[in-house]
Structures are given as structure tokens and as C-alpha cells.
UniProtKB/TrEMBL annotation:
Keywords: Cell membrane, Membrane, Transmembrane, Transmembrane helix, Transport. PANTHER family: INNER MEMBRANE PROTEIN YGAZ. The gene is ygaZ. Its main location: membrane. InterPro entries: Brnchd-chn_aa_trnsp_permease (IPR011606). It comes from Roseovarius mucosus. GO terms for cellular component: plasma membrane. It is a multi-pass membrane protein. This is Inner membrane protein YgaZ. Belongs to the AzlC family.
């Protein structure tokens, strides 16, 4: 019975992750094309996606290096873009922190925006799930996503510049993030962080090497944390 329930949560995860195929395919295809245009060979491009498996950070590093930015700036920017993964991990720990080291390591590798977003919503809705059920759901979400990320990165690298310029594959990036972020803006802290980060990203757009995004990201996180702290203090003050 337990195995059947675990299988059920796995397939629920597959179903929840499947809609992201619509953006993962053109997104990964675009990265493969852009990477080869930037001078990487097919093996380097595929290795980039397999080892890093973080689309936004990959595009950030690749774009900065293509623009002639110092390697240190490219690395710092890519790490800054991926700082959200540390927050994702901290958020998932109460739910799957009791899993084995190997399971946690595998989950850490497959923690991407889509798997985190789907998982945290499902875990909150189903507090009675066991750790095996949660892991089954988590890996179910990545099943239709990550293999296609690898496959179509390879396809993009092989196809290269033969893709017509009029085929606007770059629509995938903003649509992906809008689809993931919008449903998660549920608290004042989320809204404040989003507002501050978007505003400052526009204000500091003039900074070289996209450094304005670093400023906006740090300010957004600080704002969200402060709003959360303020709300907690107000809640405690109201208690008898």
C-alpha cells in the first residue's frame, strides 16, 4: 500500500512538471545554440548543462564571457544568480532533510526552479506525506524536465546557427520565470522583495556586466527578510 501511494505521488509530480516542457525545450535549445555561437564545442556545451544544470546562471556566465567580462565577474554573477538555490535548500530541509545522504545529494543536484516551486507547494498542501512520498513527488517533477534539458541542449549545439533568426526561442526565459514566480507571491514579504528587486534592477540597469542585477537581488532578499521579521514581531506583540 505504501509503495502504491509513493508511486501515486511520483506520477503526480510527473503531471505537475509536464507543463514546463513547453518552455524547457526552447530554453535548452536556445542555450545550445548560443553556447556554440560563443565558441564552445558540442561536448563543452553539453557538459555545461549537465554539470551546472542552472539555466539562468549558464546564460549569465556565457553572456558575460561573450561580452569580454573578466572571468571573476562572470563567476560571481553566476553564483549570485544561483544564491536562490541556497534558499531553496533551506526551505526544503524541513520536508526532506531526514532522507539519506545519497537521496539528499541527488535532490540537491536536481533542485531547480521548477522542481522547487512544484515541490514546496505540494508539500505545504500535503503535510501528511512521508519522506519517501515527498522524494517520489520531487523526482517525479524533474522526470519530464531535466532529461529534456540535456537532450535539447545537445540538439541546439548540433544544430547551431542553422536555426533561423526569426524563430524567437528566447521567449522561453521570461515565460518560465513568470509561470514559476507569480503563484508564489502570496505574502507581503514576497511582494515587497519582488517590488524592490524589480525596481532596483531597472534603476541600476546602466551598470556594466549586469551588476545591477546583483544589487537588485541582494536588496530584494534583504527587504523580504526585513518584512518577514517585522510581521513576526507584530504577530508576537499581539499575543497575550
Amino acid at each position: 500500500m505504501h509503495r502504491q501511494t509513493t508511486n501515486s505521488t511520483y506520477w503526480q509530480g510527473v503531471r505537475d512538471g509536464a507543463p514546463f516542457i513547453l518552455v524547457i525545450v526552447p530554453f535548452s535549445l536556445l542555450f545550445g545554440v548560443v553556447a556554440t555561437e560563443a565558441g564552445l564545442n558540442v561536448f563543452e556545451t553539453l557538459s555545461f548543462s549537465v554539470l551546472v544544470i542552472a539555466g539562468a546562471a549558464q546564460f549569465t556566465a556565457l553572456q558575460l564571457l561573450s561580452d569580454g567580462a573578466p572571468t571573476a565577474i562572470a563567476l560571481i554573477s553566476a553564483l549570485a544568480v544561483n544564491l536562490r538555490m541556497a534558499m531553496y535548500s533551506a526551505s526544503l530541509t524541513p520536508y526532506i532533510g531526514g532522507a539519506s545522504l545519497g537521496q539528499r545529494a541527488l535532490a540537491a543536484y536536481f533542485t531547480v526552479d521548477q522542481s522547487y516551486t512544484c515541490a514546496i507547494v505540494a508539500f505545504e498542501k500535503n503535510p501528511g506525506w512521508s519522506i519517501p512520498q515527498r522524494l517520489a513527488y520531487f523526482f517525479g517533477v524533474v522526470t519530464p524536465i531535466c532529461p529534456l534539458w540535456y537532450i535539447f541542449t545537445l540538439v541546439g549545439a548540433l544544430v547551431g546557427t542553422s536555426i533561423p533568426e526569426g524563430l524567437a526561442l528566447d521567449f522561453a526565459l521570461p515565460i518560465t520565470f513568470l509561470a514559476m514566480i507569480a503563484p508564489m507571491l502570496r505574502t507581503p514579504a514576497h511582494l515587497a522583495a519582488a517590488f524592490v528587486s524589480v525596481t532596483l534592477a531597472l534603476v541600476f540597469a546602466f551598470l556594466p556586466y549586469n551588476l545591477g542585477l546583483l544589487v537588485a537581488g541582494v536588496a530584494g532578499m534583504m527587504t523580504g527578510a526585513q518584512v518577514e521579521l517585522m510581521l513576526e514581531r507584530r504577530k508576537e506583540a499581539r499575543l497575550p
